[in-house]
Write a structure and sequence with these properties.
The chain is α/β, with parallel strands linked by helices and about 280 residues long. It is built from nine helices and eight strands. It has one domain: Alpha-Beta Barrel (TIM Barrel), CATH 3.20.20.140.
């Protein structure tokens, strides 16, 4: 019997209700509504039993939309929302008035890869807000695509050791670029030295060249390297639906991650990566 999985990286959006700047002018399959009712039937096919919703826009309306979905779908166990990190006073006010009273709000993310300033996270005001997250035991998801982003994660991990950070999509390894992968390995090794940095096995299919034909062999080296570096206590899984649909079905994505992890780890350690690590990190 397959172990159940907590999907720690699921997106939903409703273009009729919420504004998503990055989807303006998008002509891909992503430019439509993606609601919880669409993904739920796929869970039973790959034994996903719980999920964490992750922000898809840098404003509070997106977070409110996810919180409403969490209240209406018992399989949603947590939300990684957004806070105005450039304004520590407002960040604290929202934590006090919204986060503390809402059992679903577990962590925060900002789309730093869409910011013109590669060091956006290292601004004094943002760092002040990140210290608040640590104080209130909220986590921070880092969606990084540049070397500066992972350098920022390392600096934050040093400066705020009580803040739990996770590298979304394993810091987007450039799987079809040999030289790029060498640099990725060096940076991931450096990041893994910090015990408050975790690794999220997600979003890898879209990193492969010919996306419609990707297999486990394309992503296996990155997954195994992450497991080796961060260990079985600091890795967990996410499907990255619906973005992952650019690389094929949700079931394919989860099944590939499952197969690699099952072939790499004992049953006890699989349970950690599929389930308990996510529960501990996000306090589900």
């Amino acid at each position: 019997m397959d172990l159940s999985i907590i999907d720690t990286h699921l997106h939903i959006w409703n273009l009729d209700k919420v504004y998503y700047s990055w989807l303006q002018g998008d002509t891909s399959i992503l430019a439509r509504n993606y609601l919880p009712s669409e993904i739920y039937p796929s869970f039973s096919k790959v034994n996903v039993t719980k999920a964490v919703l992750v922000q898809a826009e840098n404003h509070w309306e997106d977070t409110q939309f996810m919180l409403t979905a969490a209240e209406n779908n018992d399989w949603v166990k947590g939300v990684v929302g957004w806070l105005p990190l450039l304004d520590p006073n407002e960040t604290q006010r929202i934590i006090e008035t919204e986060f503390k009273k809402n059992p679903y709000l577990k962590g925060v993310r900002h789309l730093i890869h869409n910011e013109p300033d590669d060091n956006w996270l290292l601004q004094d005001k943002v760092m002040e807000s990140l210290k608040l997250l640590a104080h209130y035991q909220l986590t921070y998801d880092i969606v990084g695509v540049k070397e500066a982003h992972i350098q920022a994660a390392i600096k934050i991990a040093d400066t705020i050791p009580s803040l739990s950070l996770v590298l979304d999509h394993l810091y987007n390894p450039p799987l079809s670029n040999t030289k790029g992968m060498e640099q990725w390995r060096i940076k991931m090794k450096e990041a893994s030295q910090h015990k408050n940095i975790f690794a999220k096995i997600s979003g890898l299919g879209t990193q492969v060249g010919p996306v419609e034909t990707w297999t486990g062999q394309h992503v296996q080296p990155a997954v195994e390297y992450a497991l080796e570096l961060f260990g079985v206590d600091r890795c967990f899984c996410g499907g990255d639906w619906p973005v992952s649909l650019l690389a094929g079905s949700y079931e394919k994505t989860i099944q590939i991650y499952r197969s690699i992890i099952e072939n790499s780890l004992s049953l006890q350690d699989q349970e950690k990566v599929f389930n308990s690590n996510a529960s501990l990190f996000y306090k589900l």
